[in-house]
Design brief:
Blueprint lengths: L1 E4 L1 H12 L3 E4 L6 H13 L5 E4 L3 H13 L4 E5 L1 H16 L5 E6 L13 H4 L7 E4 L3 H15 L8 E6 L8 E4 L32 H33 L7 E4 L6 E5 L3 H14 L4 E6 L1 E3 L3 H8 L4 E6 L9 H12 L5 E6 L9 H13 L3 E4 L4
Parallel strand pairs: 2-3, 2-4, 4-5, 5-7, 6-7, 10-11, 10-13, 13-14, 14-15
Antiparallel strand pairs: 1-8, 6-12, 9-11
Helix pairs in contact: 1-2, 1-6, 3-4, 6-7, 8-11, 9-10
């Protein structure tokens, strides 16, 4: 079945198809339509879930920690300052090994106030233990949300998962979205994992841990994170069998095979990047593009394999990282260093705070990168 959906509604339909037991969220622009649509599904009987109304994002995540601790399938969504208000318990969810799924509509952090897209909120979670996915279209929002449940609830992982997408360009833009007719063929059965608590045997979760015990919990999380790429690929493989859509590598390459320069990006700007690649190719310039879906754990080996032998990599970061390269560029630099790849790396902070990035901008970035040393630059436009 195909429907015309915004990115936010695509997330809501994916959650409906996953049939969670408990949903809790607090409204914030531009995330609110996700939760409003889920409330409609609950009211109509399409989704048999408990909607927990709370006074803040911190309480929303706390409510899901309680629900997931006894085995409930859960969901929440937020943006920007909402994620920062939730931040303390985001780490609790990961440390407690609870397979909560969250949608994040990326939005700039204040001050000053801004409701448009910026990836600064997304990157704040990168060291927490959450599996982090980034979608560039409504279809990807739907697909990656279903995959997120498969990864989070897998017995070899049991870590929360986050799916992010850009404010307005994806969240409020209508696109055709093909639904999975029977999501149970893709998703793990409910209750397939063993929750840490049970109502029949009351206990406490989150007591003080001495240094050795704390270190052991982190070691076990490290091992679980290392298993995510395989579990992600298996879930993506099942989705490919059902739909033909393939996310299994965790990233997508476009015209990279014979490219001398590769653009690297996440999110909606990738569409402009692909158009720029085609425009440059028409002029005989050998360029390609790489889009990252699975950001944490980062696909270091795969990215290095794509970039090995290239002359230049250009990272488009939709955020500013003051005093350092942005997180995406840092991960690309790490991938290159681990494999000993000698590739010029140029980062442009572009599209910050919702500023439009066009095909012409991307072409101009390529020309500017040729003339500049490797490093980070703020893109002010042509």
């Amino acid at each position: 079945m195909k429907l015309l959906l915004t990115g936010n509604y695509a997330a809501a339909y994916a959650v409906r198809d996953a049939q969670p037991d408990v949903i809790s969220a607090y409204p914030i622009t531009p995330q609110t339509p996700i939760i409003e649509k889920l409330a409609e599904f609950i009211d109509s009987g399409e989704l048999k879930a408990k909607f927990v109304r709370v006074e803040s994002e911190h309480s929303a995540m706390a409510a899901l920690i309680g629900a997931a601790s006894v085995g409930a399938r859960t969901y929440t969504a937020t943006s920007s300052q909402g994620l920062l208000y939730m931040y303390e318990v985001v780490w609790w969810a990961a440390g407690a090994r609870l397979p909560i799924v969250m949608g994040l509509v990326t939005r700039a952090l204040g001050p000053p106030w801004n409701i448009w897209s910026d990836h600064a909120d997304f990157f704040t979670v990168r060291s927490s233990g959450w599996t982090m996915l980034f979608a560039s279209s409504a279809q990807e929002v739907y697909d990656l949300t279903l995959i997120a449940y498969c990864v989070a609830e897998h017995r070899d992982v049991l870590l929360p998962a986050l799916v992010a997408w850009d404010a307005f360009e994806v969240s409020h833009t209508y696109e055709p979205v093909e639904l999975v007719e029977d999501a149970t063929r893709l998703l793990p059965p409910k209750g397939a994992w063993a929750p840490p608590l049970a109502a029949e045997d009351p206990a406490s979760l989150g007591n003080l841990a001495y240094p050795e015990e704390y270190a052991e919990t982190r070691r076990l999380m490290v091992e679980a994170v290392r298993r995510v790429p395989l579990v992600f690929a298996e879930a993506a493989g099942r989705l490919r069998e059902l739909t033909g859509r393939d996310y299994s590598r965790g990233y997508e390459c476009y015209r990279c095979e014979d490219a001398e320069t590769v653009f690297i990006a996440m999110g909606s700007v990738y569409g402009e990047v692909r158009s720029a690649v085609d425009a440059l190719r028409a002029r005989g310039v050998p360029v390609g593009a790489l889009k990252v879906w699975l950001y944490r754990p980062f696909p270091y080996e795969g990215v290095a394999r794509v970039l090995d032998g290239k002359k230049m990599a250009i990272v488009l970061s939709r955020t500013t990282s003051l005093g350092a390269m942005g997180p995406l560029a840092t991960d690309v630099a790490t991938a290159l260093a681990l494999k000993g790849c000698s590739v010029k790396l140029v980062e442009f902070s572009a599209g910050v705070g919702g500023v439009d990035v066009t095909e012409d901008d991307v072409v101009a970035m390529y020309k500017a990168a040729l003339e500049r040393e490797g490093g980070t630059y703020f893109w002010r436009g042509r």
